[in-house]
Amino acid sequence: MDPQWTGSAAFWVSLAATFIALFAAFVSYVVYRSQADPEVIVYPEGDDRRQTFINLVVANVGKAPAYDVRFTSSSTIPWKAFGLDAETAETAEPMTKGPLVSGVPFLPPGGKRIITWGQYGGLLKALGEDQILISSHYKSRHILVPWRIKHVTTCPLEIVSFAGTDASEKNYAKLIADNIEKLAKAVEKGAGALRDAH
């Protein structure tokens, strides 16, 4: 067998093995980062306790703490946009305070900030069919890395997808309390009628 051909084949085999090892290391790193990085997102969510209200939620859905969280937006974020119907709704104010304005110094995994955003009609009047892009800028720490790693996550805010969604009462504690109060009044009324009959 030709020694030159053997050396050439060994070279190509070792080069292929090196690329495979590098690719495996890259995949391992990506998997590690996905489980070791924070991820801060911003999204709208219906309020379970106040049936017609929509909140803005800032949440760290990642696996590590987020530090020095700051936010930028593609346009002014409306706030206190109240009203059930867009035609009669109040004019929304620009957001001037809260975590989206002042930031969050530290947000642990699973940590949240919940902001009362408004009601469907008021938000539809303020936004229409447009979207606002909210970018979360934050940092994380890693073992053996002396500096903080920067991250950015961008999320669209919109209101149109809430059209026709369920806004029924879900504050079951309040419903139970209201029903108990009605029952107590009925019992008291019945007892009063019995006393008057005697």
- Helix and strand run: HEEEEEHEEHEEH
What Rg is obtained from the alpha carbons, in whole angstroms? Answer: 28 Å
Query: How much of the residues is beta strand, in percent?
Result: 25-35%
User: Which descriptor suits the 3D outline?
Assistant: elongated
Number of domains: 2
Our count of helices gives: 4
Quick one: biggest sheet? 4 strands, antiparallel
Pick out the low-confidence regions.
26-32
Q: Please bin the fraction of helical residues.
A: 25-40%
Q: How far apart are the termini?
A: 121 Å
Which structural class fits the helix and strand makeup? Answer: alpha+beta
Q: Widest sheet: strand order?
A: 6-3-8-9
Keywords:
198 residues, alpha+beta, 2 domains, four-stranded antiparallel sheet, three-stranded antiparallel sheet, 4 helices, 36% helix
Description:
With 198 residues, the chain is of the alpha+beta class. It has 2 domains: 36 residues; 151 residues. The chain contains 4 helices and 9 strands. A 4-stranded antiparallel sheet has the order 6-3-8-9. The chain has a 3-stranded antiparallel sheet with strand order 1-2-7. A hairpin with a 2-residue loop joins strand 8 and strand 9. The radius of gyration is 28 Å and the shape is elongated.
